[in-house]
Design brief:
Distance between the termini: 88 Å
Number of strands: 4
Radius of gyration: 37 Å
Low-confidence stretches: 1-23
Shape: rod-shaped
Strand order of the largest sheet: 1-4
Helix content: 55-70%
Length: about 190
């Protein structure tokens, strides 16, 4: 698409020379190539991110292309593109600020969750050292409150096997936690 513009895109559309109007025809492609670099450089200085500045400039020029028939008649079409790009950058900053404020409000309203106690850390570390069968049996019996028969049904093994796993798991835990094994009883 062609249009008439001044000698340069930043100048008024028609320069008068000795009473006659001198016009230059410019296409959107020429306009884009002439001003993309400068708009991007300005946005890069504003945002501090070249990639984001290029995206913003690209979006602004895309919007200019959709309105090129009207935009080409403006005194300074690059000013319109620049303004659109800056508005896009400000919108992004507002969205980021809103998201940050939302996260900060959530953090203030959440209750402080205490960290694990030293005993809990020791028990978790000791459980991690048990064989998988023993660990599952101990966790299911003591933390999930399942009976030996329920564990046997879930694991698909005999009850005697579950009792063996529990005994071995408790014995190993007692040794890992440096406790006396006299208080450990069989199920």
């Amino acid at each position: 698409m062609t249009a008439t513009m001044g000698a340069r895109a930043n100048e008024p559309p028609a320069a008068r020379t000795a009473g006659a109007v001198v016009e230059e025809t410019i296409t959107f492609d020429d306009f884009y190539h002439a001003h993309f670099g400068s708009v991007t450089a300005q946005l890069c200085a504003y945002t501090g991110d070249l990639g984001h500045a290029q995206d913003l400039a690209q979006e602004a020029f895309y919007r200019a292309l959709a309105r090129w028939d009207r935009l080409v008649r403006y005194d300074d079409p690059v000013a319109w593109v620049r303004q659109v790009a800056w508005n896009l950058a400000r919108s992004r900053w507002r969205r980021l600020r809103t998201a940050r404020n939302h996260l900060l409000r959530q953090r203030r309203t959440e209750a402080e969750v205490p960290g694990p106690t030293p005993d809990r850390v020791a028990i978790d570390a000791a459980l991690a050292q048990l064989p998988a069968n023993h660990r599952r049996a101990v966790i299911l019996h003591y933390l999930a409150d399942l009976s030996v028969s329920q564990i046997a049904a879930q694991e698909g093994v005999a009850e005697g096997t579950v009792k063996s796993w529990l005994h071995r798991g408790r014995t190993a835990l007692a040794g890992l936690l440096d406790e006396n094994t006299e208080g450990v009883c069989d199920v």
